[in-house]
Write a structure and sequence with these properties.
mainly alpha, two-stranded antiparallel ribbon, about 100 residues, 2 helices, about 10% strand
Length: about 100
Amino acid sequence: MSKNKFEEYAVLDSKIKALTAQKDELKTSILEDMMLRNEEKVSTPVGSFAIAKLKTWKYTAEVYDMEDDLKALKAHEESTGEADFVEKPSLRFNQLKL
């Protein structure tokens, strides 16, 4: 197998991380500007931007307790072999710190 593929993957991975960080900064800046101007939607030559309302749910303690119980039950079944798993190949890449 060619080392070139590995190098190409590493370079692309770095570029994606950098572009994602840049995009996140722009997204925050655009959102702040739109909120400051009380604009819900802005149309541009490249497309429209709109402020979406995303719901974040907060549950009662009972729900979180049940969630903890479920996690414990899953861990128990995994440790006793009652639960089944399937392994599939996946690529993991650890970039060198420069």
